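ingest -> fold -> write
write: protein_1
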Amino acid sequence: MNEAPTLLLVDDDQELCKLLADWLTQDGFAVRCCHDTRSSLASLRDRLPDAAILDVMLPDGSGLELLKTLREFFPSLPVLMLSARGEPLDRVLGLELGADDYLAKPCDPRELTARLRVLLRRRVAAATSTDAPTALTIDDVTLYPQRGTVTLLGHPASIVLTLTESRILEAFLTQPDQPIDKTELFKATLGRKPTAYDRSLDVHISNLRKKLGNHPDGQVRIVGLRGRGYMYTRCQGSEAKINGCPQSQ
């Protein structure tokens, strides 16, 4: 029998925690509940869960600060933000800090379960897939999908990506210089269709741009194409090698 996936649920609303924990337990998850930052960090040190659900507002700090800590020490841990503060700015901030997904309270528990299962499937697939390449290189970028890291030619340190960022970059590197429809990219990397005014994909791509920067010659790596989606560009022209961006064979 497979072991139930473990979840860390962090919310200061103890009644809501119990309701969600009961629902998720019935759906096959093993849930640990914490109600503040201190107990959450202690729980993480004791045992790392398979995924975490964080509320934005906590009595001894901000869930966003806790998210920053998680991303620093556990970059590959799937994290879903859950908060009554569902304004677009709050959603964007959570995603910019590295959340893989975001739901506003009150939420449909079935939607919560569905999104968690998508995150967990993606994590397992990234770690165990035998079909995925161990490394994917385009020009000066090498992505290691199973590690969730990327290296840039001339930069000694690896760049750590979140699970979602790694999936998006893998999609780009397998189709360089080819437009990818935004809805298709959304479904392929986030596991669901975009909802109205959903900027999740845009924020994840913005994070990728910041981490990777432009090509050595200043050319933008990831461009948005109005009405067509996004495209990862390769180094262009005969000056590519001179500018420090080798042409792949």
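write: protein_2
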Amino acid sequence: MHTTNRYWLPSAGDTERVGAALARALSGGLVLTLAGDLGAGKTTLVRGTLRALGWTGPVKSPTYSLVEYYPFSSLYLYHFDFYRFADPIEWETAGLAECFRDDSVCLVEWPERVAAWLPPADLAIELAHVDADVGRRLVARAASAEGERCLVEIARLNLPAAP
């Protein structure tokens, strides 16, 4: 089970809509990775997810804090950003493995920086600039039944296919 879908996201609002769609499919134990260059929309997608779950506070990239925690009554949600990791061994010293549990959802930016330590992703998303003046391309790969549920929710948005 490795379904891959490609979409065109003309605006930041569309990126947030994808995040909101993902919120409908979240369940404990889900690992979702977000890859892409700086400014590709990773945190924008997470913001859409959190807003759809009812979070009204600020949503910022955890570049300096490494992780932001968002408690919801039905799950624990962790937003990681490993951009600053110079050595994957930092994973062990930071004690972050304990966040990846059956009752948590983990959204991981810059997963390639800790790839050897991360649990397998249920859904891997790549965001890319296509042109500086227009939107983004989103490629989503599901590797589990949970990831497939996420893809179904994104497909319901009827976004245009990526060029």
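write: annotation protein_2
The two ends are 24 Å apart (CA to CA).
The mean pLDDT is 88.
pipeline exit 0
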